[in-house]
Design a protein that fits this description.
The protein is mainly beta. The protein is about 5% helix and about 35% strand. This is PQQ-dependent dehydrogenase, methanol/ethanol family.
Length: about 600
């Protein structure tokens, strides 16, 4: 028998990682413990609750200015556009998605590409807001992601070869998938995109081993949910109990409400927490009523998709404020009582704190400076509308309705870009934007696969010198602790660490680090293109790393009106950057 030294064994393991050979797969324990495990990232949100907080301290507020690139990887080709994914890391291999439904496996030590998968997309895809993708899910030996033609694809982690492929919805009707899937208790959970096309939103669970459908839950009132056994559909109740309670006529049949950002899982309550998008069409005068469950937060039973509770942020939404923004679980003390809360910064400009056990409203407050569409929130968290700022109904002769000015703009006080929560400061770090819009209603009718808006708009910056604002918000008081202004809109995610750091990027191309307690900028690096991805940090071989995708795109240059003019000269890109603090060079003996 040949004996190998510990050094040789270590080198052998490293070589396996470098070459992309088989290493251990991701377990459910890995996912459940992701928030506290620092040598891997195996859940979107760096923990099932989505706090985007790391307990690492090797890189901190005293030495972050020494952070330097360790390597950079190009996604290559002409498929640039927006890069919004969060990297995932396991056993020295990093997995990312890129624009146009691509997946890459990269050696996390060197940046060498191990494999690449390119989905074969049809010509007729209809993504409303760029050809982006936000990341993969990992389980066992599988890397699973959604595509712009509304499929789920499972790849083998070592080769990138397709293990199974499943059609979730009809892309010809406007459906797509852009969110990272979620792995919970033996189930793969996904939402869908397509609210601008009059789709019916739905959240579904699949068997991650083979793609078999387990349950489906429509997110618009009146549609039947199903569970599946042995391939047979079993009725699981109508969403909302019945049709037409909060929708007029047949509009619930094309009601939108797409849960396009995905969701998180709270193990303390055993609930899935998802947000839903805008009702369709945008013209609110066509659909009198609250229009459940559009522009809402939903809590679902992960076993069968039952809706346990809901909270609607913008009933009868007339401004495309959606309700998809992430609902982040956190606990805090109120006297001697621990509150199981969840927080969300809505596109409508209000920050909400809910009791995540039952969805009850605890408090809400503005997190942007200018809100015109509502005068505030009542004691139940329902908006007090300013009807002068709701766009007018079209005339009977078909002329457009009265144009009004509304703030925030429909791209939101905060859009998809995820905020972070610090377990040390108790603050949320919110990437927000100050802008408004002229908006008006138009006549429209549903046609499969066509835009179903019934509205027009022009987005305008509120200030001459800035749009983006990174804010530190106290969820217990509603107070802003600090802010950092940015000329262009902020469109990327935020990361907080126990090292008293907050990381985020901007469209100007900089990845930046701030002091978590006072907002002082401590470090920045220009990546060459706009940063609209989600930074992450992890440790490997005794060192702490920070990674982020760079590549300008997304909704702003497509829908931004006057704001799009401000950012029109920003370069597209596709680079994965990884940073660390260099080790001191040993001094040779003289």
């Amino acid at each position: 028998m040949t004996h190998r030294s510990p050094f040789v064994l270590t080198a052998l393991v490293a070589a396996m990682s470098f070459s992309g050979l088989a290493v251990a797969g991701v377990t459910y324990d890995d996912i459940n413990n992701d928030a506290t495990t620092t040598d891997s990232i195996v859940s979107y949100g760096m923990g099932t609750q989505g706090q985007r907080y790391s307990p690492l301290t090797m890189v901190n507020d005293t030495n972050v200015d020494q952070l330097q690139p360790a390597w950079a990887f190009s996604l290559g080709g002409e498929k640039q556009r927006g890069q919004q994914a969060q990297p995932m890391i396991k056993d020295g291999v990093m997995y990312i998605t890129g624009s146009y439904s691509r997946v890459f496996a990269v050696d996390a030590r060197t940046g060498k590409k191990l494999w690449q998968y390119d989905a074969r997309l049809p010509d007729g895809i209809m993504p409303c807001c760029d050809v982006i993708n936000r990341g993969v899910a990992l389980i066992d030996d599988l890397v699973i992601f959604g595509t712009l033609d509304a499929k789920l694809v499972a790849l083998h982690k070592d080769t990138g070869k397709v293990v199974w492929r499943k059609t979730v919805a009809d892309y010809k009707a406007g459906y797509a998938i852009t969110a990272a899937p979620l792995i919970v208790n033996g189930k793969l959970i996904t939402g869908v995109s397509g609210g601008e096309f009059g789709v019916v939103g739905k959240i579904e669970a699949y068997d991650p081993t083979n793609g078999e459908l387990l349950w489906t839950r429509p997110t618009i009132e009146g549609h039947m949910g199903y569970t599946y056994k042995d391939g047979k559909a079993i009725e699981a109740g109508i969403s909302g109990g019945e049709a037409n309670k909060t929708w007029p006529g047949d509009l619930w049949k094309t009601g939108g409400g797409a849960p396009w950002l995905g969701g998180f899982y709270d193990p303390e309550t055993n609930l899935l927490l998802f947000g839903t998008g805008n009702p369709a069409p945008w013209n609110s005068h066509m659909r009198k009523g609250d229009n459940l469950y559009s522009s809402s937060r939903l809590a679902l039973n992960p076993d069968d998709g039952t809706i346990t509770w809901h909270f609607q942020t913008t009933p009868n939404d007339g401004w495309d404020y959606d309700g998809v923004n992430e609902l982040v679980s956190f606990n805090y003390k109120e006297g001697n009582k621990e509150i199981k809360a969840a927080a969300t910064a809505d596109r409508n400009g209000f920050f909400y704190v809910l009791d995540r056990t039952n969805g009850k409203f605890i408090r809400g407050f503005p997190f942007v400076d200018t809100i015109t569409w509502a005068k505030g929130l009542d004691t139940n968290g329902r908006p007090i509308y300013s009807e002068d700022h709701r766009p007018g109904a079209p005339t009977e002769s078909g002329d457009q309705g009265k144009t009004v000015y509304a703030a925030p703009a429909f791209l939101g006080g905060k859009n998809w870009q995820p905020m972070a929560y610090s377990q040390d400061t108790g603050l949320f770090y919110v990437p927000s934007n100050e802008w408004g819009m002229d908006i008006w209603n138009e006549s429209t009718a549903y046609k499969k696969g066509a835009a179903y808006l019934g509205a027009g708009f022009t987005i305008k910056p509120i200030h001459d010198d800035y749009i983006g604002v990174l804010r530190a918000m106290d969820p217990k008081t509603g107070k802003e602790v600090w802010r950092v202004k940015n000329p262009a809109p902020l469109w990327g995610g935020v990361l907080s660490t126990k090292g008293n750091l907050v990381f985020t990027g901007n469209p100007e191309g900089y990845l930046m680090a701030f002091n978590a307690r006072n907002g002082e900028k401590l470090w920045e690096f220009n990546t060459g293109s706009g940063v609209i991805g989600n930074p992450v940090t992890w440790d490997m071989d005794g060192e702490q790393y920070v990674s982020v995708l760079s590549g300008w795109g997304g909704a702003v240059p497509l829908w931004g009106g006057q704001v799009a003019e401000i950012v029109k000269d920003f370069n597209q890109g596709g680079m994965l950057w990884t940073f660390k603090i260099p080790k001191p060079t040993p001094v040779a003996n003289r």
